[in-house]
Amino acid sequence: MKKIVIALGIVLLSATSAFAVELVNKDSQPHKVTITEGENTEEIDLAAGASQTVCESTCQIDVEGIGSINATTPEDSFVIEEGKISVATVPNI
Question: Which pairs with CB-CB distance under 8 Å and at least 24 residues apart come from 74-77?
């Protein structure tokens, strides 16, 4: 029984960590980004061409000099490209 509980816990942890809000910088310059998740605020410098997980659930993403966007689900992905921030599109398969 103990092994089943441990296995279930591992599965649940890996399932919840599989979803996170991703931000991709396709610009040729770095951007200063402020992430507000609940009452927590974090500033990051996102290098040109870099990608980073910015929050685990809903959050607000502010890109200095560009604007803001809200992540409403952990599956959201955003891209900074040509000086704009937008929802990342998923290619059709």
Answer: 74/19, 74/20, 74/21, 75/19, 76/21, 76/22, 77/21, 77/22, 77/23, 77/24
- Prediction pTM value: 0.75
Give the distance, in angstroms, between the CA of residue 49 and the centroid of all CA atoms in the same chain: 15
Instruction: List average pLDDT for each run of 10 residues in the chain, which is 93 residues long.
Output: 47 54 96 95 97 93 96 92 88 55
Tokens linked to 42: 């974090």
Residue pair 57/74 in contact by the 8 Å Cβ criterion: yes
- Give the HSE-up count for residue 34: Cα atoms under 13 Å, Cβ half-sphere: 11
